[in-house]
Amino acid sequence: MSKITKRFVESIIPDPKKVLIFWDDELKGFGVIIRPGGRQTYCIQYRNKQRILRRLKLGVHGNITTEEARVLAKQHLGSISYGEDPLEKKKSLKHLPTIKELAADYVERYGKNKRPRSLQEDRKLLHNHIIPKLGDKKVVHLSRRDIEGFHASLKETPYQANRVLALLSKMMSLAVAWEWRADHPVKGIPRFPEEKRDRWLDKEEICRLWNILESYKTQPSAFFFKLLLLTGARKNELLQATWNHFDLEKGVWTKPSSLTKQKKREHLPLSQEAIQVLYDLKSLNLIEPYIFPGSAKGGPLKNVQTLWKSVIKKAELPNLRIHDLRHTHASHLVSSGLSLSIVGKLLGHTQTSTTQRYAHLADEPLRHATALFGNTVREATSNSPKQSFSK
């Protein structure tokens, strides 16, 4: 026996025929196992409360240092005197769920209640960010510091970083509810500031876009973009829409609760322009039930990006997103004098704060009204004869 040091461990020559074990002469029960292939593993040996001889591996030399192994050995050997069994504890930890397992349960149980689009986004965040970075961690061991560091590593993409944090928060809420841990480590972690991207088309830009869409008379996707602009609908609401949702004679689109963000049935009155687009679309004799059927039998259209990229390039509207058509619809309604509450109802906003982003546009009708009286005063004063006063 001798004191186990880095120099001592690295000086040991493996026996090609058998396993060697060396015990430390200072810390009883601390040793190193040398296998025929040269692998060196630190361990402790002890007897539990039942006086059964047990051996616990601490780590492989190179992965941990001799000093780190000695510290671990002291901690474990010390706990034995209080009646603990380190090997049994280690075995029990193996059965603790990991973040990867929590993610799988989240998708299977909670994901059933989410819209397909939202669930797809969650899967993407899990696959691209959460599982690669945190997947192997035990749920009970994930600390607030771990999450703060993970969130900070995504600071270059603040919107995505905040979505990842929100998803982790939902997962941790489930972990607490399932008693996989006692506390919620995401609560209180500040989100990155997000600047809302406010982009909508003016009348001249709408004209350019519409003229380009008109050149694609046989492309269903072109009708899709027209209807998004005319109705302000969400992309998924329209892609999932079927012909039986529309009453073209009455001019009403009835959105089922399964497609709306509020999970309530919505009745949207259609303009004459939107009704005409629907009639033109119907004349293409597409396979029902979806108004925009996809290539897969019985499924809706999925890929609209290809045509969209071509359209915005020809219309000279770079970086215009499909979702900006919804913003365009809303902004022109508000600037025309409609109240925010009516616009919010038309768009199916779940929160009034969402509609408030258009509040500054509501000033335009008021500004126009005050300008009318300003013009009256200017005309009255400019046409009146100048009076001269003599002393």
Characteristic key phrases:
391 residues; single chain; elongated; alpha+beta
Low-confidence spans: pLDDT under 50, at least 5 residues? none
Strand neighbour order, sheet with most strands: 1-2-3-4
Compute the CA-based radius of gyration.
34 Å
Order of helices and strands: HEEEEHHHHHHHHHEEEHHHHHH
Largest sheet: 4 strands, antiparallel
Percent of residues in beta strands: 5-15%
Mean pLDDT: 84
Structure in words:
- It is a single chain.
- This protein has helices at residues 6-11, 66-80, 86-94, 99-110, 116-134, 144-152, 158-177, 203-214, 220-231, 235-239, 272-282, 305-314, 324-335, 340-347, 352-355, 363-383, and strands at residues 20-23, 30-34, 40-47, 53-60, 246-247, 252-255, 266-269.
- It is of the alpha+beta class and 391 residues long.
- It has a 4-stranded antiparallel beta sheet with strand order 1-2-3-4. Strands 5-6-7 form a 3-stranded antiparallel beta sheet, with no helix packed on it.
- It is built from 16 helices and 7 strands.
- The protein is 47% helix and 9% strand.
- The termini are far apart.
- It is elongated, with a radius of gyration of 34 Å.
Task: Provide the fold topology.
Layout: H1 6-11, E1 20-23, E2 30-34, E3 40-47, E4 53-60, H2 66-80, H3 86-94, H4 99-110, H5 116-134, H6 144-152, H7 158-177, H8 203-214, H9 220-231, H10 235-239, E5 246-247, E6 252-255, E7 266-269, H11 272-282, H12 305-314, H13 324-335, H14 340-347, H15 352-355, H16 363-383
Antiparallel strand pairs: 1-2, 2-3, 3-4, 5-6, 6-7
